[in-house]
Design goal:
The protein has about 120 residues and is mostly helical. It is built from seven helices and no strands.
Amino acid sequence: MTRVPDQSPPFLLLALLALGSGCAGDPPAASADACASYKADAGVYAVCVTRSAGAEPDLSTAGARCDLLPAPASLTCRSRWVGLNASNTAFAATDLTAFCSGAPGCNDLVASARPPTDPTVGTP
């Protein structure tokens, strides 16, 4: 009997790419409007929106982009944004953890990016 190798769904691969660190070789993030053309493929659309949210400089705009997606993709989007911005001290740790909206591991991204002397770490 020949065993066919397991094939990961394309969404998994795309989700992993969306969680990347934003390496210099990454193409620029698309705007949310540019992502509309991908709505027929939920996985590709989620990656596009997640990448565009990651390029946003503030919590409210990034949150609005992430909220275009249904859960759990919206939570992945929020985690990626926090991962990219957790060390930016312009954002209070409490604001970042609130932005996480319960996304698994998201609060850990904030805690690991902030020194233990930051009094806002660990406070809801």
